[in-house]
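So, who can interpret the following?
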Amino acid sequence: LETKEESDAANLYFKDYENKLKFFIHSASNEGKRSYDWRNTKKLINFLKKEYPSSVIFVSDFNRVLKNQKYNERVIDISRLDIRQTASYIKRCDLFFGPDSGLMHLAAAVKTKSLVVFGSIPPSSRINHYSTHKSIRLEELDCLGCWYKACPINIKCMKDLKPEKVLDKIKEML
């Protein structure tokens, strides 16, 4: 539950973004096999900037996978926020995008519409009870649902899911 102080602080910060579409991008899970490829995440950020030119994109990249990402007034690095501040920010965003991770569950707790990328873990095992969440994955692979087994095909499920497909799904959700 957000405290009054947390709410006031987040509301004050978000005042500058009142009439803007706000995206929250979580760059990676703490487990590599569940992480969307960082190159695709960077492309997705650029696609969002182009498709929604007045939007703002908050990026949580606490494990620093977005090598040399350029941050500015439209793409804001919020990786150093604590978990409670992060929840306050996610709550005020229009859409959360990220992998199966703790922040994905946090987005559910604050009831933020979310698109979650899945590969080796079946989406139904993680988001079945979250009415705010939709999943996206590379459906054509036979090995989906392998859970934590060693991957013989270099985690194609997370590397080959094109950011264009993710963008199309985001458009459907907005």
User: Anything to note?
Assistant: Helices lie at 4-14, 38-51, 83-91, 102-109, 124-127, 156-159, 163-173. Residues 38-51 form the longest helix (14 residues). The chain is about 35% helix and 15% strand.
